Amino acid sequence: MSDEILMEVRRDYVLAKIREGERIDGRRFDEIRPIEIKTGLIKKAEGSAYVKLGNTQVVAGVKMQIGEPFPDTPDQGIIITNAELVPLASPTFEPGPPDENAIELARVVDRGIRHSEAVDLKKLCVEEGSKVWMIFIDIWALDDDGNLMDASALAAISALLNTTVPAERFEVGDDFPLPVRNLPIAITSLVYEDKILVDPCRDELSVGKNTITITTDQDDNIVSIQKSGPFLLREDVFDELLDVSIKKAKEVRRLLAEI
Amino acid sequence: MEEIKLIVDGKRLDGRAFDELRPIKIEAGVLNRADGSCYLEMGGNKVVAAVYGPREVHPKHLEDPSKAIIRYRYSMAPFSVEERKRPGPDRRSIEISKVSREALEPVIMKELFPRSAIDIFVEVLQADAGSRTACLNAASVALIDAGIPMRGMVTSVAVAKVEGILVLDPMKEEDNYGEADIPFAFLIRNGKIESITLLQMDGRVTKEELKTALEMAKRGAMQIYQLQREAILKKYIKEEEVME
After folding, report:
1. What does the domain layout of chain A look like in residue ranges?
2. In this complex, is the C-beta atom of A1 within 8 Å of any C-beta atom belonging to chain B?
3. Chains A and B: how many Cβ contacts under 8 Å?
4. Which range marks the domain in which residue B112 is found?
5. Which of the residues in chain B have pLDDT under 70?
6. Model pTM score
7. Beta-ladder partners of A234
8. Considering only the top CATH level, what class is A2-257?
9. Cα angle: A41, vertex A42, A45; to 5 degrees
């Protein structure tokens, strides 16, 4: 309850700042918080990554196994993305099965990876029609200081880049690096009236969880959009969001190239 | 796998032009128990929407002392699709329910009904592509039928990209084998599109294609909006006749 009162106070402060054309942490409106990426920290996983975006922290792990392909794609591997907003990450997260926020998070990350065709799924066929590699991406939130979405998407693609297909363990040949051929980057912005705040922190989200996530691939195509939150989006703001997201994604993608 | 041609001689599989909607049928006030309801067909979609409320909130702790809470449940009948769907919410319907609720919330004048709930239930009886858009269109009419004060009408339609071409209101084949699917919903007030209330996208499009898709969706939405209005008018004209 005290958290709710604090949120009210923060809200007034955040709004006052926005009106002055500033953000509470001194960032520019299109400035992303510092990003730290570490990969390969979980030895038991086929691939893993830890991402710190400002004070938001996420771990993503990739596990793989052999399974049956979907009937309509008999020669392609399968990606399954799951996200857990575990109670250790925020006082507002509760134990139990994923709620609508966790489901939305996982599905938006999944769409970015899937539609950018980040993983060459045709190279993950073991025996057409019966055996293909299944990639399980599990996103574990550790600390929610806002924008878990972008941190999770970044952790997921970083973990995929770090993944080795465990073919030897499954006795189907030699291990090989997971064929990753595109780098989708999600950029989430908070929309307040005609203002766009890229990579909102938790305190900024006290003005309303009204966000748009735009995921682009390395050729600046848009591969996923999700408007999230009960708000009306003006068309001119949407146009601006597209430009900002494409521009900021390029910055983040450069970081990925270094890992 | 056999390649399916989705566009033949500049026409779509069902003979539609690129910017042509599927046939739409809307009827308001089809359910007796609900406070407001609507039956809607959009191509092969057959959906029913019901609105209950404003009414007491259960469980009590969800109450908001400053405004009504809005709940939206998108649900698909097991027989609505080719392969039987297990009843109950799956991850897809939970996500659709969330974004649809968020599309209606800013349009409903919920601050007029503190401590109450407005429940919107939509059931997909037969699904084709675009069932979330059909459901939102039905929900919007059902809300008006229930007499819930709204800032305007919510109207929804999708645009898809198939074989490099943008098409309005995609049907199943275009949705399955297309390169992108972009469901939109708009707030229409005084006969004009004011803003976007729902926007999702998956697939691969350029920024320019997205802008063209938005224009196409807006034109389609205006046509649907007229049908939504007619459905409501028709119901109230009928009621007046009964009263006389």
Report:
1. 2-257
2. no
3. 91
4. 12-239
5. 1-3, 244
6. 0.93
7. none
8. alpha beta
9. 135
